[in-house]
Amino acid sequence: MTTINVGLLGLGTVGSGVAKIMIEEADLLSQKLGHNLRLAKVCVRNLSSRRNFSPPTEILTTEPGEVVGQPDIPVVVELMGGLEPARTLVLQALSAGQHVVTANKALLAVHGREIFQKAAETGREIKFEAAVAGAIPVIRILKEGLTANRIQSVFGILNGTTNHILTRMTKDAMTFQAALAEAQQSGYAEADPTNDVEGFDAAHKLVLLTALSYGVLPQVSDFHVEGVTRLEPEDFTAAAEFGYVIKLLAVSTLDQADGRLEIRLHPTMLPAKSLMAGVNGVMNAVMIRGHASGDIFLSGAGAGMMPTASAVMGDIIETSRDLRAGSAPQVPALGWKNLQSWSVKPQQEIRLSYFLRFTVIDKPGVLSAISGILGRHDISIAQAIQKSFEPARGGVTLIILTHKAREMDLQAALAEAEKLDALTAPTRLIRVENQI
Asked: Do residues 188 and 282 lie in contact, with contact meaning Cβ atoms separated by under 8 Å?
């Protein structure tokens, strides 16, 4: 029976899961594939480190060159994380004629154009199913199942850590800090959670979804990224009263009117009855809207050792089948070979509905003053509620939901409103999405 060798760079959480599956399920894989998959070499930083799974010591090495550039290892799996030396090693592997599987969304978001160009030049595959939404096969669906569609919109909950935190704040009225501490104790959040809670992890995944959907590879700096650290329990209480749930939502949509891309990632109020609003805990979800397919909703485990390893294994298996069959790589799929440079619509020009929470002095004329400012900036009020006096906040809470308005106008109105003597605390703004 034919044997295809696989080399692994990195033996952290996901790498350990991949090694565990390849070694412990080798017989099952052979039965299903009709050929053997052999973990030939694993490159690690430290041979003596404690790991979730330990492969045989004879296949461990600290030298990347024992994996990259080896002619008897046609598939290299990069699970080191970070930008370097991952970028250099991936480029070297492709140049040496090796196919590459990776879960490194930051690497592809930052250096994707260079890496995919190299893959196209060398006629080799670069697969990255595990880089977005863990076990959810969204990459494969976009590359294959929806190839005949013009993608109109992609919406996603793309980070399990923040979704867990927001779920706890929604269901248990926890503060952000308390929910974060609980997530860290449960192993759902890193000791340094910045990449997750500030939105950068999800933003890198959004870049890749945008590239697959539209053949455009934006930079994270091209669009608005806002994390969840400023959310307060009062926001969740008010959202529930209006029939909404707050999620960290990734959006990539093509404006049919002007042909520009609208890309953004920020806390968003979603209708409580929507499918996306019901995605809780560490789960991820993606909704894709195609011109022919309509809406497709996918949900599943977005992180973790075995769910992510499962996605990596799917790419390894697909690559091994191509090698066994001698079929051509799928590098040109969905515009990777000729990535376009469409313009991204500035956040200031995007039209959305907004939730505004003002804290004001309890006296006549305040609501009239604020509504007057909004009106002068062409912002129409959909609903307004005034709460009772809150001693801790030094005033009463005034909540306003707007109809759709340009962000530029909304920000100008808030800047004018902040000058009112009646305001006793900074105004809270959360964007509202009713189209999913």
From this structure: yes
Average pLDDT score, the chain? 91
**What tokens does 220 get?**
């994270």
Classify the C-alpha dihedral 205-211-217-218 as positive or negative: negative
Measure the CA–CA gap between 288 and 224, rounded to whole angstroms. 20
pLDDT at position 335, please?
44
Give 16-61 pLDDT, tens digit per residue.
999 999 999 999 999 999 999 999 999 999 998 888 888 999 999 9
CATH of domain 138-301: 3.30.360.10
DSSP string covering 364-375: TTHHHHHHHHHH
Distance (Å, whole) CA 268 – CA 249: 6
Q: How far apart are CA 351 and CA 353, in angstroms?
A: 7
Domain 138-301 and domain 348-432 have a common topology: no
117, two tokens: 């160009």
In the chain, what are the domain boundaries? Answer: 3-134+305-335, 138-301, 348-432
Question: Please, is 308 exposed, middle or buried when counting C-beta atoms within 10 Å of its C-beta (0-12, 13-18, 19+)?
Answer: buried
- Find out whether 320 and 312 touch, Cβ atoms under 8 Å: no
- What are the C-alpha distances in Å from 397 to residues 230, 292, 379, 421? 17, 45, 20, 15
Which CATH class name applies to 348-432? alpha beta
The CATH homologous superfamily of the domain defined by 3-134+305-335: NAD(P)-binding Rossmann-like Domain (3.40.50.720)
The DSSP code for 53 is: S
Q: Residue 409, Cβ neighbours under 10 Å: how many?
A: 16
Catalytic residue ranges: 205
C-alpha to C-alpha distance for 59 and 340, rounded to whole angstroms: 42
Q: What are phi and psi of 74, to 5 degrees?
A: -80, -15
Q: In this predicted model, which residue has the larger pLDDT, 13 or 392?
A: 13
Mean pLDDT of the region 202-228: 93
